[in-house]
Predict the 3D structure of the following.
Amino acid sequence: MSDDGALFDKGLPIRRSVLGSDYVDRSLGSADDFMMGIQRAATAWGWGWAWGDPALDRRTRSMINLAMLTALGRPHELKLHVKGALNNGITVEEIKAALLHATAYCGIPAGLDAFKAAHEVLVKEGAIPAKE
Amino acid sequence: MSDDGALFDKGLPIRRSVLGSDYVDRSLGSADDFMMGIQRAATAWGWGWAWGDPALDRRTRSMINLAMLTALGRPHELKLHVKGALNNGITVEEIKAALLHATAYCGIPAGLDAFKAAHEVLVKEGAIPAKE
Amino acid sequence: MSDDGALFDKGLPIRRSVLGSDYVDRSLGSADDFMMGIQRAATAWGWGWAWGDPALDRRTRSMINLAMLTALGRPHELKLHVKGALNNGITVEEIKAALLHATAYCGIPAGLDAFKAAHEVLVKEGAIPAKE
Amino acid sequence: MSDDGALFDKGLPIRRSVLGSDYVDRSLGSADDFMMGIQRAATAWGWGWAWGDPALDRRTRSMINLAMLTALGRPHELKLHVKGALNNGITVEEIKAALLHATAYCGIPAGLDAFKAAHEVLVKEGAIPAKE
Amino acid sequence: MSDDGALFDKGLPIRRSVLGSDYVDRSLGSADDFMMGIQRAATAWGWGWAWGDPALDRRTRSMINLAMLTALGRPHELKLHVKGALNNGITVEEIKAALLHATAYCGIPAGLDAFKAAHEVLVKEGAIPAKE
Amino acid sequence: MSDDGALFDKGLPIRRSVLGSDYVDRSLGSADDFMMGIQRAATAWGWGWAWGDPALDRRTRSMINLAMLTALGRPHELKLHVKGALNNGITVEEIKAALLHATAYCGIPAGLDAFKAAHEVLVKEGAIPAKE
């Protein structure tokens, strides 16, 4: 798995730009040899190969991910991409609408889990106020 | 998403009656505008539209949900419906049998996760004694 | 996998009674050594172990299966259990209500696929008239 | 399930406009009482409630659906929404990019099945030429 | 998505060797520009990057795929890998045991669908005799 | 569900041998009547029936489980089988390769969740050093 170097190099700045340099530096910096396996895969294939394709803009990819990760039932990854959506200029209203759209297609329990995960990030990032 | 008012009003008392007024009041009371999106959806579609249809009794819907949520891999929602099953008069023996039935169809790891989630609720609700 | 003989013997008459002797005889009769692997497993674990447990009646197990197989996305197995549901005395109205209930929890595409599969069986079995 | 009339009426013209009047007329016209259960649900919940919410434009909802239905493993529904995507002005290049994006998140077998389903529709609709 | 050339070149002979040159030539030869998107992805990522990694032998990867594709519910891809398993020297008895193992973890309906898909290939390839 | 005694007795020593006697004793010892339902099922069906079949060796079953549990999205069960894989003589390099293989088939979010779960066990078991 040594032939993905060009895609890794292409993906790294895109990943930083969408998820934030702090998060990416922490993920790569804390990774031992075992975890570097998936870090390289995610950066090369997810960010270099998929996100690096100019055929879709970042805003559209973020919108897609909100609903697709709801369907896949992956709350950890969904949280990262809620933050990425904010960085890509998507509003809280649009995130809410994407998750409601996904609820109709994935069912209510999937929707509830996605809303809870997204809400946690939105409050932490200051995009919606913490309730007193 | 403003046309679901009648279904929301129909679903709210059913939801209270199955999941408990305390839980429902807390969920709605703590919901900000973002979370009200899914709270309305769940109440209108899940409780008003599905549970509000008299073609199946509540006991049957509870039995279905125990196995269906095992299949969907949604432990948070499963826990709510274990409590709902108790409120609908389903016994611990029947909950156990429904989850074993689901294990044959969904596989052992799905069964193990469902049993753990259900057990936590059953002990908390006093339906089975906490082990010393 | 030779220790499941008692469960196989217990499950076979239950399977016949729910799915019909014709279907079961055909499945077992046409099975070569390879397919007997899963035929034995399904009969012993599904029918002897799960359905053979008296803690839930057959009607309840049928209702559960309609929704659970919708969640699992298994149209072939769902069709068998729609026929089984009819044999267990469940009405077309109840099958419809169970699949609508499942649609709220599993999403609209899962619901559409389940309705189509169930409809095919209901027409074939004469439970609803074929449209002219 | 009689309280969803307003959402059904709101959803019907949107569904016609995205999926084509011919398809929708055929679906509703051929539906007996059993199938009308899911036809009403899909129209009211999917089209009236989700698509009818102006917070996201149709183009974005189409893009989301291509990837989300790949994740859900629902080829029949995906095919409908490939046609809908064309009707909403999405290009073949964008459909391809959305499915490749989904492949990175859902895995190669999900991607292969989605490409095959989409390809069938694109050729049938004349959006890409049939190979000689 | 132009940076995966080295992995495509690495993956192509492995894919040919496991799935058969005839099948691979047909897949690539019949692919238009749209389908080449996923053909390149599958060859580069699946065959060059994953199968091309010497840390696991082909036999082990075939065994893994039989159970993993049962879990994912992808019968088309499973069929390809049943043929690949035969090419990699795996016996019919071992394929049967892998699918029974998967049945315990994925549930009976997943097992039934996998056995049917595998059986079709095994008969077609002459690995088990067609029943008269 | 009383006819699975022979399989339970056959499975128990295999389960102990793969997952460790301490873990198994704790699971069975802490189980009340409710939890014994799934403990018996897992031991009889998973360990007696599946693992007890000599047609596949334990090493192969461990390799299969790493990828299959990634596909199923069951991190708790995956953790147990990472420990089991170590007990069955599988190296950290092989575990890494199996999870990368699974990532290509199940998608990047499934891969990330599996790597995190596996990493936690590998550090706890001392198979890879904790990072300072």
